[in-house]
Amino acid sequence: MTVMKTSMRNFFAHKGRMALSAVAVLLSVAFVCGTLVFTDTMNTTFDKLFAATSSDVTVSAEGASDTGETTSGNGKPPAMPAAVLDEVRGARGVKSAEGSVFSSAVTVVDADKDNLSPSSGAPTIVGSWNANEARTMKVTSGAAPEGAGQIMVDADTADKHDLKIGDEIGVITAVGTHTAKISGIATFTVTNPGAAIFYLDTPTAQRALVGEPDVYTNVNVTAAAGVSDDQLKKNVTAAIGADYKVQTAKETADANREEVGDFLNVMKYAMLGFAGIAFLVGIFLIINTFSMLVAQRTREIGLMRAIGSSRRQVNRSVLAEALLLGFVGSVLGIGAGVGLAIGLMKLMGMTGMNLSTDDLTVAWTTPVIGLVLGVVVTVLAAYLPARRAGKISPMAALRDAGAPADAKASAVRAVLGLLLTGAGGFGLYLAAAADKASEGSLWLGLGVVLTLIGFVVVGPLLAGGVVRVLGAVLLRAFGPVGRMAERNALRNPRRTGATGAALMIGLALVACLSVVGSSMVASATEQLDKTVGTDFIIQSDQGKPINSQAVQAVKDAPGVERVTEYKILDADLTTPDGKTSKTQSISAADPSYATDLRTETVAGKLADAYRPDSMSVPEGFARDHGIKVGSKVDVAFKDGTTGALTVRAITSDDVVIDKGSMYASIATAATYVPADKMPLDLLVFASAKEGQQDAAYTSLKAALHDYPQYVVRDQTDYKEALKDQIGQLLNLIYGLLALAIVVAVLGVVNTLALSVVERTREIGLMRAIGLSRRQLRRMIRMESVVIALFGALLGLGLGIGWGATAQQLLALEGLKVLEIPWPTITGVFVASAFVGLFAALIPAFRAGRMNVLNAIATE
């Protein structure tokens, strides 16, 4: 009880100094709990949706996926004859059955040809209005569609795009473009996760989506009373045979849940990873806080030891304070995490994914994880200062002599840090020298971890040299004030090293990712310049295939000399070694593709691969299967027949664009795949007539005005789009890393605040001999800046090394250009100085307000 009372008294005596450490714990726990609550809520939302939309049993056409997505390569959903519906209705245990048609391979536009698809990436679905849809949708305005001229839209999409009853809508499919006017607006009775839903009547949906009457993509079956879903599935399968996919409601919901879960897990673990980085940074803040508090209470600890307190009791006293700090920070963090989750839900709502707070899910494990994590991390971080406090002998403490083993411990720390850093550097060297990316990535990971730990451990040793250099460059110009700031930063290298290390971690990751991202863009740009011989690339940014009407519009555009179509077909390949490679992708294109994309070959000519019954294979595939130019490969096309194709070329693996592709002509593919099963073009290349590039660019954009889902890009546009994609990803990562940097800034603030308290008497004496308040504040700001720049130098240097090594591994995949983004690196370094200035504002202000006489009288 005495230990706990002492801990409580010390905690509340230093509550102001504990606050920033508590904020660090709060932020880290909030990010963890917010991530868990947000993903759990997303799961709850989708579970409710899947449960509400799944029939007792669903029958789908052959080729449909387990999730109900029914789009095939030719842009039409796989369909089954209407006679299947009668067979299902005749099965035992069927209460009712209803046929439906839907497709997500659609683009819906308004009268101005503006795309109505969600910006969040959620699907656009056009289907038939039926009783199954009425389970989750309620017509709240107008009426359900009747006849070819009517269409109904969901309320969220109508609100977002200001659609009203009577407005004209265009549905673009592989069959053509169907226009209709809005007859009604339907509202979700469950949470809409962001999809845009449009409804036609069944006959119109059959013609507009499939191009055939009397077909369905799905049959929704309801079980009679007392009949289980599993039994109903068996009965339906017996009635219609094994040519169709039959799933129970649970199987359909599980398949949908698995698909959504894959996406959510990636997001969940990525965010938890950044929370872990914030926790790591927070550890340095907590270590510094307790180290300085222990140092300030050295005489008090000595008195406790002198009157009988044991090392263990002193140790427990410090750890009890950490326990209280971790508990308070974690409890507040759990509450903040729920608020963060609600904020993320609101943010997702702005992008079109509507998540209701009614579905807010806080599992019992979430607060437990947050509490345990926050408390354990805090106590572990405080262990070293607590152990150090327990080692101080009573007499040494009363003399303020400190711990006797400090010098020896510093030497051991320096040696250990150098060894770890050297081992990490050797790991990075092995990664850069690796022949295979898979092997090199293991060495890269090991090198990153060891160099990071090594720099953290050796930080105090580096602080002495780096701070002196920074002082000579930046601080000496400020005269005595600058020299005092430098000496203050050098006074306790361990403290400066730990404070700088907290900032170093976040900036090292920023620098590493910047180098990797810039190198990827530079490498891809070089490859585009070297290999792409066409003027324009037409494709969908959503990955949708290009329908035949749009391809024809491209061919008819004025100023266009050559158009190359490009398709992807799946096939099973049986090679000369007798092995069968399942589901390989064949890139079928027009012969002009060999000119539009100048792919290097190691044997044969790529143009010969477009001869009848010919193909190319990549270098690695040829080596693995003993294939040479002239070898025969049996190609069993999906939805088609098998042909024996002759290998006319072997392409190099030392490329970026289309690496690993197998090429054949569209004419060859058409020999074995029926026209109605032939996939649509994935992209189209177009080349302008000599001297008409600008006119062709304008005419292509005009030709595709009615097809807003497709984008026309010249090579400059394509490079910018690639740069923007990588830039957006990096900005997202930088935003998440900002959490760790915020915690690091709190560490600088806390270190300075405690340092000011520690030097109260010294500050009073300096004021007494003539140091002005302005000079005092400047000194503290300079000290903060030099500590921040020390952390930035270490972090940026470490990150550049990591990024350069990672680029060497990417070079094995064809990304051979190393580009260090010096403007970004310089900007981060300069920004670090402003971070130091910002962190010093409050400590400098408090120092300037000290009463001189009271400060001198402080013991």
Automatic annotation (TrEMBL):
It comes from the Bacteria. GO terms for cellular component: plasma membrane. It is found in: Cell membrane. Residues 60-79 are annotated as: Disordered. Residues 19-238, 499-696 form the MacB-like periplasmic core domain. InterPro entries: ABC3_permease_C (IPR003838), MacB_PCD (IPR025857), Macrolide_Exporter_MacB (IPR050250). Keywords: Cell membrane, Membrane, Transmembrane, Transmembrane helix. It is a multi-pass membrane protein. One of its GO terms (molecular function) is transmembrane transporter activity. This is ABC transporter permease. It comes from Streptomyces antibioticus.
